[in-house]
Model the fold of this input.
Amino acid sequence: MISSLRIGFGEDSHRLVSTRRLVIGGVDIPNSPHGAEAVSDGDVLLHALADSLLSSFAEGDIGDLFPPCDSNSIGLSSKTILAAVLKYLRSNHGYFTINNLAGTVTIDKPKLGPHRLAIREQIASLTNINPSQVGVTFKTSEGLSPDHVQARVSVLIATSTEP
Ligand code: C5P
Ligand code: MG
Done:
């Protein structure tokens, strides 16, 4: 039985550089002219999702679990970060389900629309929900921030006393 609904929200931003590959929602985007400059793989969508989940339980953010200055964070896959966040929340907050999540990625290039389904399926698989529960939209900055990638994610959590 559902005991409470909790909303979460997360955001992440990175500089784009030509020397990095672009990873969005756990999907390697082919033929991108740039990728996020970051200590980890710079997956803004998974970082925003991880923060969204933590914020839904008022649990701080991923910097608390994975300090950017920590050498263990270098080259870390964001899938590992997300899995660790889910494990942490499950062990500290009992049973909960993700009702749905909604994310927006802002990047001028490349077009992400062709990768929407792959991204939704990848996130659904990482969070153990159905792709129909994962909404993802894409926006350009209208040329105002060509070297910037940003993601925002909201999540709705249902907690219950038993599975
Ligand atoms: O930002 P703007 O409203 O001009 O974006 C128009 C459409 O282009 C978006 O609704 C989205 O479907 C698509 N888009 C995309 N990949 C991006 C940015 C926008 O597929 N990187
Ligand atoms: Mg527009």
